[in-house]
């Protein structure tokens, strides 16, 4: 019998001085360009240790040779043993952060928010009895069974669906994985129904956007509900009608869901059907319109008492930032022209490359140019289950304005 291959030495990295400072400051990413030396090639998911310039332990993380983010940092500081017990404590810490956030009327929320919960490149969302695990790096593939065991111990009756970012789907195929794969349990349909604040929604967990629903806008949907009584409401870029349903339950007399996707509008109609037993929802007139929002806002329409602008990301890379800022201004200006006196504009952005201050400034400027008196009702960013611990994670922002 041949001798077993000798164990490879621990993968060791040395990095530039600026990268060393960023890691000490808590940033969870180490880029390929910052690595000055490593003792051997590394494999996806391998634990790699970063040493400082005095040859002292600095950080440990998951190595990904195919990504510009070469190391996803798990821990910085004193050396730790990353074993089953360590992983279990890390997961329990994320779950404990959500303790007490939701009552029985909400069973759709984020359980693990990537780097901000110490799970870099991984998110875990719950939709009633379904867990959706989304991975953004192939470094998690070797650790998948360990993670599933941890989830089974804590959520023994729940099914688990795997979602994958586009950039790792080829690598996933080589590992016997695919987007939308059911890892645990059985699922007869691609959509599951869950509750949010007592409203029922469907989440397309196997093929929908994100993990199946936009859970990150929950708090802003609740704010819209409180402002909707008696109003005619426009939900632009409506997707599956989340803001629309909250507005209807809040007493809106009419709600228009506007989106370019027929599939999204059909989902909005199904979500309204799920909630027709609620008197306020049944009383509100709901209409869907398939159109390009930018073009539609330039055509004459009856005025609205509340308008929600919640587009998809308009800047997926830094080179698109300036164009996105201008687009947010055009959207706000078009919506303001359709607002009746005392109307409310809710404008949101999920573009990480556009800062909160840049976004708020361009919307405020559009309101100022309208010549109307503006009352700012507030600005908000991430919901508590989507907390962000470093700048690149701070993508979501929303501003509420009342125009007299």
TrEMBL record:
<dbReference type="GO" id="GO:0032259">
    <property type="term" value="P:methylation"/>
</dbReference>
<dbReference type="Pfam" id="PF10672">
    <property type="entry name" value="Methyltrans_SAM"/>
</dbReference>
<dbReference type="GO" id="GO:0008168">
    <property type="term" value="F:methyltransferase activity"/>
</dbReference>
<dbReference type="InterPro" id="IPR041532">
    <property type="entry name" value="RlmI-like_PUA"/>
</dbReference>
<dbReference type="InterPro" id="IPR036974">
    <property type="entry name" value="PUA_sf"/>
</dbReference>
<dbReference type="Pfam" id="PF17785">
    <property type="entry name" value="PUA_3"/>
</dbReference>
<feature type="domain" description="S-adenosylmethionine-dependent methyltransferase">
    <location>
        <begin position="191"/>
        <end position="385"/>
    </location>
</feature>
<feature type="domain" description="RlmI-like PUA">
    <location>
        <begin position="14"/>
        <end position="74"/>
    </location>
</feature>
<protein>
    <submittedName>
        <fullName>23S rRNA (Cytosine(2499)-C(5))-methyltransferase</fullName>
    </submittedName>
</protein>
<dbReference type="InterPro" id="IPR029063">
    <property type="entry name" value="SAM-dependent_MTases_sf"/>
</dbReference>
<dbReference type="GO" id="GO:0003723">
    <property type="term" value="F:RNA binding"/>
</dbReference>
<keyword id="KW-0949">S-adenosyl-L-methionine</keyword>
<dbReference type="InterPro" id="IPR015947">
    <property type="entry name" value="PUA-like_sf"/>
</dbReference>
<dbReference type="InterPro" id="IPR019614">
    <property type="entry name" value="SAM-dep_methyl-trfase"/>
</dbReference>
<keyword id="KW-0808">Transferase</keyword>
<keyword id="KW-0489">Methyltransferase</keyword>
């Amino acid at each position: 019998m041949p001798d077993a291959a000798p164990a490879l030495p621990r993968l060791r990295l040395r990095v530039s001085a600026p990268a060393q400072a960023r890691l000490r400051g808590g940033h969870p990413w180490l880029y390929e360009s910052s690595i000055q030396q490593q003792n051997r090639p590394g494999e996806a998911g391998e634990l790699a240790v970063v040493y400082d310039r005095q040859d002292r332990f600095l950080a440990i993380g998951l190595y990904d040779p195919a990504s510009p983010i070469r190391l996803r940092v798990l821990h910085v500081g004193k050396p730790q043993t990353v074993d089953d017990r360590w992983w279990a404590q890390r997961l329990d810490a994320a779950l404990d952060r959500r303790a007490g956030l939701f009552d029985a009327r909400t069973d759709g929320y984020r359980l693990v928010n990537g780097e901000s919960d110490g799970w870099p490149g991984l998110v875990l969302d719950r939709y009633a009895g379904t867990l959706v695990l989304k991975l953004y790096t192939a470094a998690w593939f070797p650790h998948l069974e360990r993670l599933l065991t941890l989830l089974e111990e804590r959520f023994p009756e729940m099914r688990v669906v795997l979602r994958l970012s586009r950039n790792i789907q080829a690598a996933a195929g080589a590992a016997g994985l695919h987007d939308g794969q059911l890892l645990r349990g059985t699922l007869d349909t691609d959509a599951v129904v869950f509750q949010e604040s007592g409203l029922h929604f469907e989440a397309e967990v196997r093929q929908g956007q994100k993990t199946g629903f936009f859970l990150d806008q929950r708090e802003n949907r609740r704010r819209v509900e409180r402002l909707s009584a008696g109003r005619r409401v426009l939900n632009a870029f409506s997707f599956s009608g989340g803001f629309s349903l909250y507005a209807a339950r809040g007493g809106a007399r009419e709600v228009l869901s506007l989106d370019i996707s027929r599939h999204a509008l059909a989902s909005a109609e199904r979500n309204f059907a799920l909630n027709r037993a609620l008197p306020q929802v049944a009383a509100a007139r709901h209409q869907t319109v398939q159109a390009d929002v930018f073009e539609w806002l330039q055509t004459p329409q009856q005025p609205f008492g509340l308008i929600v602008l919640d587009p998809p990301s308009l800047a997926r890379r830094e080179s698109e930032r300036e164009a996105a800022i201008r687009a947010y201004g055009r959207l706000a200006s078009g919506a303001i022209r359709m607002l009746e006196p005392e109307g409310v504009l809710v404008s949101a952005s999920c573009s990480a490359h556009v800062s909160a201050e840049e976004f708020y400034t361009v919307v405020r400027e559009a309101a100022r140019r309208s010549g109307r008196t503006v009352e700012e009702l507030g600005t908000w960013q991430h919901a508590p289950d989507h907390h962000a611990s470093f700048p690149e994670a701070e993508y979501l922002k929303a501003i509420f304005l009342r125009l007299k």
